[in-house]
Amino acid sequence: MGIHKHWQAAAAATLIAASAALAQTAGKVPPAELAEARAIFKQLIEINTTDSVGSVTAAAEAMAERFRKAGFAAADIQIAGPDSPDKPGRKKNLLVRYRGSSSSNKPVLFVAHLDVVEALRADWTTDPFEFVEKEGFYYGRGTQDMKANDAILVADLIRLHQEGFKPDRDILLALTADEEGGSYNGVEWLIENKLEVRQAAFAINPDAGGVDLDKGRAVSINVEATEKLYADYDITAKNPGGHSSLPRPDNAIYELTAALQKLAAYTFPFELNGVTRAYLEKLAPIEGGQNGEDIRAILKTPPDEAALARLSAIPGFNSIVRTTCVATRLQAGHAYNALPQTAMASVNCRILPGHSAAEVRDRLAALFADPKLEVKSLGSLGHGGGDRKPMTPPPPIPAVFVPLTAIAQSIWPGAQVLPTMEAGASDSVYLASVNIPSYGFSALAIERNDVRAHGKDERLPVESFEKGLAFYYEFIKALGSH
Ligand SMILES: [Zn+2]
Questions:
Q1: What is the pLDDT of residue 1?
Q2: What's the CA-to-centroid distance between 14 and ligand 1, angstroms?
Q3: How far is the CA of 400 from the centre of ligand 1 (A)?
Q4: CA of 179 to the centre of ligand 1 (A)
Q5: How many whole angstroms from 409 Cα to the centroid of ligand 1?
Q6: Does 2 score more than 50 pLDDT?
Q7: Taking the model in full, what pTM does it have?
Q8: C-alpha 455 to ligand 1 mean position (Å)
Q9: 425 lies in which domain range?
Q10: Residue 21 — very low, low, confident or very high, per pLDDT cuts 50/70/90?
């Protein structure tokens, strides 16, 4: 029997049994469990896990202690990670195994990063490393990205364990280092060093997606099914230079800026994949109006050119339907009174799944059509370094999407589940590179215009935390009863 088919049938049966219970309790958590989860959240916010002065290890140890106290076997709680000589002892990850009844079913992996972006006390209204509850919000660095989800996963796994829930396969939780920056990416390290992580059937990464609120109303439930490939390039013009009183036509700055103007005028071809097509089909009725009509018009073959031009003028939309490249840095010349010998621009590209960084390099070189220009691929220099592999969209497997949709719609009724392609980059690329399909869903509902991740006075509605906790409690149960 096909594995997907099996999942589908079993998941549907589970849901019918669960749906009656869900209708009563959707989005609610018993007070004692809620208080416990809030205490975990507070503890995590107040452990500084920035790359500069913080310690991911300290947060990993604190969570390990909670799992030990909850009765998880010592062998199932690992603090593991690289030596990190320049940040000694600060980059260890936590890997917890919640034992299932069968080892023949491949484990489900939850990944969530513990590190946070830097935050300066002077910029903030309250101390970013103090957990503050005020006017219906929790404030602190990581309340959105992503210590709320760390706390939710820890609290729910401990709650399920204490209730005696026995999943039908192992559930792995990896709380990791250096997603936001730093040189010791925990997911990459765990994949290389921990066999059980590589054996996962699929992964859930709450660092992407989420529930969009519009004035308190949930409008969409976004699940990241794929993401674009991050790639940096250097474009360099060189020539002999000389005295500035004797200008020459082969000025390096003119040569480079001519190339950049070609880049500014260029658009990569329109292209949809399974994820973006499904997303746009569902988005059209939600958007409505001219945008809704235009979306329908570009889904036709061939797409309507006028509709595509209107939509492409919206940056967020444009990023969904094509590869984009943009000049981000510029460096040229060495003196006021000398012809420039070197001019260099950095170009950052976000490449559609199915295309490679090398292919885009060749496209840029062909576009510039200037053999004297050097177009050099730098991999993901500005995002952790190394060559990232392109992420092929995994299928929206029923084992994930059937329970996710049912549970999410019981908590946020009226909102649709949309599979999305993230224009940014997350740790899911590391999982995809070893063929572990990874789906991104933060169960946190946030106002569209109140996204404060990486920003000052980061905050999360108190109500969103409880709903996220309720979501993952049901979702983990469903994934462990397939
Ligand atoms: Zn994040």
A1: 28
A2: 31
A3: 21
A4: 7
A5: 24
A6: no
A7: 0.82
A8: 12
A9: 3-225+394-480
A10: low
Question: Do 213 and 186 reside in the same domain of the chain?
Answer: yes
For residue 252, which of 262, 261, 241, 260 has the smallest C-alpha distance?
A: 241
Q: How far apart are CA 424 and CA 451, in angstroms?
A: 15
Cα of 30 to ligand 1 centre, how many Å?
Answer: 28
pLDDT reported for residue 18: 53
> What is the whole-number distance in angstroms between the Cα of residue 113 and the centre of ligand 1?
7
Report pLDDT for 11.
Answer: 42
Tell me how far the alpha carbon of residue 207 lies from the centroid of ligand 1, in angstroms. Answer: 5
% of the chain beyond a pLDDT of 70: 93
Residue 141 lies in a domain: yes
For residue 117, the CA-to-ligand 1 centroid distance in Å is: 9
pLDDT digits (tens, 9 = 90+) for 307-360: 999 999 998 899 999 999 999 999 999 999 999 999 999 999 999 988 999 999
Q: Tell me: do 218 and 267 sit in the same domain.
A: no
Calculate how far, in angstroms, residue 384's C-alpha sits from the geometric centre of ligand 1.
14
112-126, 357-371, 425-439, 466-480, range with the lowest pLDDT: 425-439
- Compute, in angstroms, the gap from residue 264 CA to the centroid of ligand 1: 30
Residue 24 sits in a domain whose CATH number is: 3.40.630.10
Residue where a domain stops, chosen among 346, 379, 412: 379
**Cα–Cα dist 61/47, whole Å:** 11
- What tokens appear for 237 in the block? 């013009």
Task: Compute, in angstroms, the gap from residue 381 CA to the centroid of ligand 1.
Answer: 19
Helix H or strand E segment including 98: strand 93-98
How many angstroms is it from 304 CA to the middle of ligand 1? 36
8 Å CB contact between 188 and 430: yes
**CB 237, CB 372: distance < 8 Å:** yes
Q: Say yes or no: 213 and 238 in one domain.
A: no
pLDDT in tens, 410-456: 999 999 999 899 887 788 889 988 999 999 999 999 998 788 888 89
Q: Which residues contact 113 (CB under 8 A, 6 or more apart)?
A: 146, 150, 175, 176, 177, 178, 179, 180, 186, 187, 207, 427
**Domain assignment of residue 385, yes or no:** no
Task: Give 369-392 pLDDT, tens digit per residue.
Answer: 999 999 999 987 666 555 666 667
The closest of 360, 305, 355, 350 to 326, measured between CA atoms, is 350
**Cα 458 to ligand 1 centroid, rounded to whole Å:** 13
DSSP secondary structure letters along 288-329: -HHHHHHHHHHTSSSPPHHHHHHHHTSHHHHHHHS-EEEEEE
Q: 292 alpha carbon to ligand 1 midpoint, in Å? A: 30
How many structural domains are present in the chain?
Answer: 2
Query: Dihedral, CA atoms, 466, 472, 473, 474, nearest 10 degrees?
Result: 120
- pLDDT category of residue 214 using cuts at 50, 70 and 90: confident
